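Final report, closing paragraph on structural work. Over the funding period we assembled a curated collection of sequence-structure pairs, and we close with a single example.
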Amino acid sequence: MTGSARRVQSGSPWEESFGFARAVAVGDRVLVAGTTSFKGDVLYGEGDPYEQARVAFASAIEAIGEFGLGVGSVVRTRMYLAHLRDVDEVGRAHKELFDPVRPAATLLVVEGFIDPRVLVEVEIEAFRGAVDS
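Its predicted structure, as stored:
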């Protein structure tokens, strides 16, 4: 990656306390950090993995929107789940958003998250040269 980096903050309290940005653009790539369904202090979709995935992906897409990109620019997604049982619901949310673009995707089941109510965390990577939809 070449060029100077531009960073976007979302206002998450963890960004400040851990020292990270929601999204970073360098050259043609935009990387979005792990994103949950928290907006401020409110967790959207508590107990619902589909809704948490939908809200988390929407927040991640909003972050790349700060760089003039949209869903069509997404080339990679990562989904982290607290429970194997939630694979189908999170996959359904992913398909609804990304089926037309078909990014490279990774889905992992992890030990847990910083807040035990979080069921899903997502990351996306976008490329400025991709066709945007």
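The chain has a mean pLDDT of 92. The first strand starts at residue 6 and ends at 8. We thank the funder for supporting this effort.
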